[in-house]
Model the fold of this input.
Amino acid sequence: MSEHVQGQTVGYARVSTVDQNEARQIAAIGDVDRLFVDKASGKSTDRAALQEMLSYVREGDAVRVQSPDRLARSTTDLLALMSQLAAKGAAVEFTDNPALNTSSPQGQFMLTVLAAVGELERAVIRERQAEGIALARKRGVYDRAPKLSAEAVAKARARIDTHGASVARVARDLGVSRTTLYSALNGRGRYAESR
Done:
C-alpha cells in the first residue's frame, strides 16, 4: 500500500446489504485517491470501512460521499462524524448536496443549523423520557424498591462507624455501588423517606 500523501481525495460509499450495488455511488463520487466501501446498515457508525477511513484521513484531505445518509442515518451521528473529520483538518464533500460541503461558508452555516436541529431533537427526547417516567411513577410502575433495607443500612453504618470498615468494602460486600451506599447512609434519593 502506498504512503498517504497530504491533500488526497478520499471516497466513502455505503450500501445497506451485500446484495445492493455501490456502483452508482462510486460513479457519483468520481475519481478519488482512496476509496472505502461498507456493506452494512447505517444505524451505527461502527462500520469497518468507515472506521478505517476515519483513521486514514489526514489534514488537508477531502472526504467525498454521495449524500449525508450514506455517511450516517441520524443527525446526531452525522454531526459527530463531521466534527471528527473537521478536527483532523479534513473537508467533507457531498456530491448530491453541495450546499453541505464543509469547505464553503454556506456548508458551515447549514451544519450549524443541523447541529441546532440535532440539539433540539435530543432535548425533545429527554423531555419525553422525563414525562414518561413521571407518568409511570404516578401509576406506580417506575419506582423500584431501594436496594438496601433499613436494617442493611443500619448494619453498614455500624461497620463503618464502629469497626472502621471502608465504604468501598461495605458496598462491595452488600453488592451495591459506593454511590448507592452513600445515598443510603445520607438519606438521599429513594432512601430519604426511610431515614
Observations:
- Strands lie at 9-15, 34-39, 62-65, 91-94.
